[in-house]
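Hey, can you fold this one?
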Amino acid sequence: MKKVYWEYYGPGGRDVVCLLNGLAMHTKSWNSVLPSLLDDYDILLYDYIGQGQSTSVDEPVFIPRLGDYLVMILDEVGVARAHLLGISYGGFVALDFAKRHQRRLYTLTLSGILLSHEELFRMYQDMSLRFYRAGGVGFELYTHYLYEKIFGEDFVCGASAYLEKMRMAFFKRYEHQVHSLIRFTEAQIPFFEQLDEQMSSYRAIRTPTLIMAGDEDRVILPGVQRKMADVFPVSRFELIEHSGHVVYLEKKDAFFGLLKRFCHEKSILF
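Sure. Predicted structure:
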């Protein structure tokens, strides 16, 4: 039987912000940012099947199913609606969730994600799969390539003392379950294959949506992320300077300051 691990922080009786993990993350990845939110909001975290303390099995992953687990968790904790934040891979999960379950949302926030066909991203995805499937030395080499690619200059210079520690933690976490990274990445293929036929459903999302991009993001260029503002009828695009793909970690104060203000502004609509 599969186990889906989740954590809930806060006293209850307040709006809930749900933070959806990126591909290589787990619930503990959010520990350093929880204090910046808990003064105002309760927090819900969960590990996808294949991450953290959830079951890791080598079988196909389906992005809609990851959203279905979130519905079950919301029901379990008695939360009717939440503010949903999806960063990087979590953005795919958030987009599909909003398309199918927008009645469960107050707001939607996306960062480091795309909703269009982009050749550079397809190449990045294919290259990642090659490294994952190589395993061993190939996978460890990828962790060097990945960390060089995802962060902005300011963060790399300021984090030089523990960047290697972060990289090794990622490698050790997935060294013997790299199949999870393969399955997550493979799940993006049908997401994009169905994108054109599903676009009208994405355009029907009326949930207030905030898109935050790092101006140095080389995984998904800021201009690509900005395109999403043309999809969602109630949306705002914010560019955060001197940050790369992982804006929530690189520029915490700016990122979570914008998130909290957005959630507060939109909460009064409900």
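Residues 6-267 form a domain with the Rossmann fold fold (CATH 3.40.50.1820). Let me know if you want another pass with a different chain boundary.
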